[in-house]
Amino acid sequence: MLKAVGLRTDHLDNPLGLDSKQPRLGWKLISDRSNVMQAAYQVQASHAEDFAELVWDSGRVESDQSQGVRYEGPEPRSLERIYWRVKVWSNQGEESEYSAPAFFETGLLSSSDWQARWIEPEREVDIDAYKPAPYLRKEFIVRKGLVSARACFTAHGLYRFYLNGVEGTDQQFTPGFTSYHHRLQVQVYDVTALLREGTNALGVILGDGWWRGNTGGANLRNNFGYRLAFLGQLVLRYVDGSTEVIGSDDSFRTSTGPLLKSDMKAGEVYDARLDLNGWHQPGYDDSSWSPAVVKDYGYRNLIGTRSVPVRQKERFTPRVLITPNGETVLDFGQNLAGWVEMKVSGEAGTEVVLIHGEALDRHGNFTLQNLAEHGELKDFQEVHYILSGNGMECYRPHFAIFGFRYVLVKNHPGEVRPENFTAVAIYSDLEETGDFTCSNPLINQLVSNTRWSQKSNFMDIPTDCPTRERAGWTGDAQLFARTATNFMHVYPFFEKWMADLAAEQYDDGCVGSTVPTTFNYHNLEEWERVMRTNADPMMAMRRPRPGTPSFLDGSVGWGDAAVIIPWTLYLCYGDKQILERQYESAKAWVDYMAACAKTPNEQYKDTPAYHTYTDGELDADYIWDTKFHYGEWNEADANTKDIMSAMMTSQHTLPYVATAYYAYSSRLLSEMADVLGKQEDAVKYLGLFEKIKRVYNKYFIQEDGSILGDRQAPNVRVLAFGLADEARKQAVADRLAQLVVEKDYHLNTGFLSTPFILPVLAEHGYTDIAFRLLEQETCPSWLYAVSKGATTIWENWNGITPEGDPFASLNHYSYGAVCDFLFSDVAGIRPVWENPGYKHFVLKPLLGGTLTQASATFESPYGTIRSSWEKRDQGVAYHFEIPANTTATIMLPGQPEDLTQIAERHPDVRYEDGRIVLEVGSGVYHFELS
Ligand code: BGC
Predict the structure, then answer these.
(1) Closest Cα to atom 6, ligand 1: which residue?
(2) Which tens digits make up the pLDDT trace of 163-204?
C-alpha cells in the first residue's frame, strides 16, 4: 500500500485568495512497508474536480521531493480555482493511486480587478474617545442560476460580515495584523451557500482593532489612522457564464448601533436596548441611515492572506467562586486568550460587567495588579453588557480579546451559574504537531503550559503576552521560534510576519523591537499631534518620526529575529522560499550590526581593543559596543528597576551580548547564503564570524572560562553560538556548571539564553546538571511555576511570589522555549541543516534525572515521527517511527557489546563517540540495550 495524503498548497489546506503565481505544493507518503522513498511523482492540475481536462500535467518526475514542489501550470487568473492531485512511485516499485484532490484558489490579483471602492462610514470622529462601531449594509439582487459567489473583503480596522443575517465566516480578527500601509491582507470567502435568488442583504460591522484601538504596552491609539474603512467586492458567477460584481460604494448605508465601544484591549460596551433587529436581513428599513463616503485609498498595499485564520478553539466552563472580599469570580481553570460567551436574563438597562484577569492575589481575591506595570489599570479587559430585558440574552465580544483565567462578574442579575458562561480560546488555527510526555508529571504540565502560552500568543502575530502589551516583540518570537515548530506547523504564520518585519525594517537595516511597531506611530498626523502636546523629552527618543527607529529598536537578540527565524524555518520545514524572501532583510541587519560595531564608543576608548590592530584592522571594529540593548532580559536576580534606568540613560550597551549576536547572525547568514548559492556572501560572512570570534575570545573570555560579569547567561550564549576557541570551550562549560552549582542548581538565565542552557550543559558533559535544573522545583526554575499551579508560562521566574502575590504577565511563552530540549534532546528528534525539514533527521535520545520514560510524537512535513524510551529492569527500551520518504540517523547511548545484537539486523551499525550509530529508512524500530 502506497498513498499520497495531506496535500497542501503554500503550507495551507485548500486556501482561497492566494496571491502566489507559482504556489508550492506538498504531500506526505504513507506506506505499510519499511525503507520507502519516493522514486517519482506526477502532479495533475485541472479546473474541475473530475480532472477530465488538465491545465497542467507534470508528467512522471523522477524525484524524492514531496514538499515545496512548484506549481508549473499556466499562471492562474484572478479568482481561479485549481484542483490538483498527485500520484507517487516508491523505490520498491509500488505505484499509488492518484490522491484525493486538493485545491487552491487565487484572489484578486491585480488592482484592475477591483471595482469596489473604499468606503468610510463615519462623518465625524472624536479621536480621543472610544467610538461606537459603525454598521454598514447593502441590499442586492441575485439572479437565477448562481453557481458561485466569492466575497473579497478587507478593512481599516476589523470587520465582521453577515449575509442574510448569517455570519459569513468563522475567521476572527480579520483582516489580521500586518504593517497595513505596506501590506493589507484581503480575505476571500466562498459565500455561495449564503445567497439566494432574489433580494439579499450584506451587513458589515467595523471595530477599532489594531488600526486605531489601543496597541502595545503604551496603549498607542490611532496608530495607523483615525477612521475605519471597508473595502469589499462580491463576485457572482452565473450558469450562463456571466459575472456580476457588487462592490462597496456610496450605495452602502451606515449607522451606529448597540456596540458602543470596540477596543481589542480595553474591551466592549454593548447596549442591547439599541439592537438593530434585522439590520443584516433584506427588507430592513434603513431610511434613517446615511450613505457611506467613498475614499480613494487605492489598492496598492493589498495582498492575499498569507497565514491561517484565527478561530475560536477550546471551550471551558468555570467554577464559580465567592472570594474573601465577597466578589463573584469565575475560574476557568486555564489561563488563555479569548473571550467569554455569556447567557443572562434580567431587567432592561441592567449593566453586567465582566473583568478579565490572570490571577488571584495572596488573599484569594481577583486582581489585575500584576498587569499594571505600565501605570494604573483602568479600562482594561472589560465587557459591559447592558440588557435589553428580552428574556435570555447571549453575548460575546465582537472585536475584543483578553488574556485571562479568572473573570470578575459585577452587577449580575440573579444567581451566577457556571453553565451560563463559557470561555473560548482564540488563536491562529495552526495544525498542532507535537506532544511530549514523560514519567515526571510536573514536566508534562510544563509542556502543557508552554503549549498554552503559544496558543495564547499566536494571535495572527507572535505577541509577548495576550494582556498588557500584545506586541510583536521580535526577541520573544526569535527565541521561541524553534520550540514553536515542535508544537505547531508555524511556517505560514512566521512567513507572513517576517514579511512585515522586512517591510518595517529601517533604511539603515535596523530592525524594530516590535513588528508591526507599537513604539512608534504609523500615522504621521497622530505622531505630530502627540508631539505637539507632549512635554516629556524621552518621548521624542522613544517615538521619533514615523519611519525612523526608536532608541528601543535595533537591540541585539531582538533585531536578530531577521536572521534567526528564517534560518530556523528553513531548518525545520526545508522550504527555501523563506530564505529567498528574507535574505536581503537578514543581510541588511547584519550589515547594520557591522556599521554599529565600527562606530566608536567614547566610553570604551581607553580599552585595549581600541588600540590593538590585527591584520591591519582595529579590534574594536569587531566589537559592538554602541546603542541600547535589552541584554539577557529578565534574569532571575536582575532588578527590573535597574534595567529601566539603564534604558532611560541609554547606557545599556552590553558589548559582550551585542558582539555575541553579531557573530552568531553573521554565521547563520553565511549558511543561508550558501543554500541560496550566494557563494561570495557565504565566504564573506563566515569570514566576518571568524574575525568577531577571534576578538571575542581575546577580550571577553577569560582563561578560566568566565566571561565578563561571570553569570550563567554569557557562558551559555558563547557555547550555543560556537564562539569559544576549541581550547577554551570546556573551561567555559566547566565555569557554567560551577555557576549553576553555586546557585544550588537554580537557573539564573533570562529570556535570551534560557532556550540553550540545558542543551549546552548536556553537550559538554553535564547531563546530570541539566536534568537537575530541569527538575528543580524551587524558584527560580521552570517547575516552580508548575508547583504554584501555573497553567501558562510566566514572564518572570517569580510570577507568583512565595507569599502568593502575582507579579507581571503570567502568559509569556519565552521561558517555555526549554521545551525544545524535551523534543530535540530528551526525545532526541533533530532536523539537520544539510537535508532540512526532517527529510533526514537525527534520533539521539538523552536519558537522565528521575525520568524512567519519555516519549515524543512529532508531525513533520513528511509524516509522523515517534521517539520514546523506557528504563526497564535489564536496561533501556527504545522505540522509533520514521515516516516514508525520510531517513534518519539513530544514535543511542550504549556499550560496544550492544553492537553485536544490533548488527544482526543492521549490519552497518557503528560505534562512534560512545554511541551506537545506525542509518535507517522509514519504518518502526525497537531496540533493547543493557
Ligand atoms: C515585553 C517583552 C519584551 C521586553 C523587551 C517587555 O515589556 O513584555 O516580552 O521582549 O519588554 O525587553
Answers:
(1) 464
(2) 999 999 999 999 999 999 999 999 999 999 999 999 999 999
Residue nearest to atom 8 of ligand 1 (CA): 464
Report H helices in 417-473: 441-457
In three-state secondary structure terms, 895 is: coil
d(CA 216, CA 491): 25
Contacts for 671 with CB less than 8 Å, ≥ 6 apart: 567, 682, 833
For the segment 73-126, what is each residue's pLDDT rounded down to a tens digit?
999 999 999 999 999 999 999 999 999 999 999 999 999 999 999 999 999 999
pTM: 0.97
Residue 285 cell numbers, joined: 428599513
Lowest mean pLDDT among 560-569, 699-708, 896-905: 896-905
| Residues 407, 359: Cα–Cα separation, whole Å | 9
H or E stretch covering 61 = strand 61-62
Residue 508 is placed in which grid cell? 539603515
- DSSP SS3 for 483: helix
Share of the chain above pLDDT 70, in %: 98
Q: Please report which confidence band the pLDDT of residue 477 belongs to, taking 50, 70 and 90 as the band edges.
A: very high
- Ligand 1: residue whose CA is nearest its atom 9: 464
Per-residue confidence band for 537, with pLDDT thresholds at 50, 70 and 90: confident
- Identify which of 814, 15, 811 has the alpha carbon closest to the alpha carbon of residue 401: 811
CB atoms within 10 A of CB 859: 20
Residues lining ligand 1, judged by CB closer than 6 Å? 217, 464-465, 469, 473, 475-476, 630, 633, 812
Cα distances (Å, whole numbers) of residue 105 to 23, 55, 181, 256:
10, 14, 25, 35
Give which of 887, 844, 837, 884 is closest to 867, Cα–Cα.
844
Pocket test for ligand 1, best of 476, 542, 556, 643 (most atoms within 8 A of CB): 476
Q: What is the structure's pLDDT at 652?
A: 62
Which of 473, 643, 647, 797 for mutating ligand 1's site (highest number of atoms within 8 Å of CB)? 473
Q: What is the average per-residue pLDDT within 479-493?
A: 98
> What is the three-class DSSP state of 541?
helix
Helix ranges (DSSP H) in 367-488? 441-457, 474-487
Q: What is the mean pLDDT of the chain?
A: 96
Identify the residue whose C-alpha is closest to ligand 1 atom 5: 630
Write the CA distances from 757 to 449, 721, 726, 753, 917, integer angstroms: 19, 12, 19, 6, 26
Q: Which helix (H) or strand (E) holds 153?
A: strand 146-156
What's the gap in Å between 469 CA and the centre of ligand 1?
A: 8
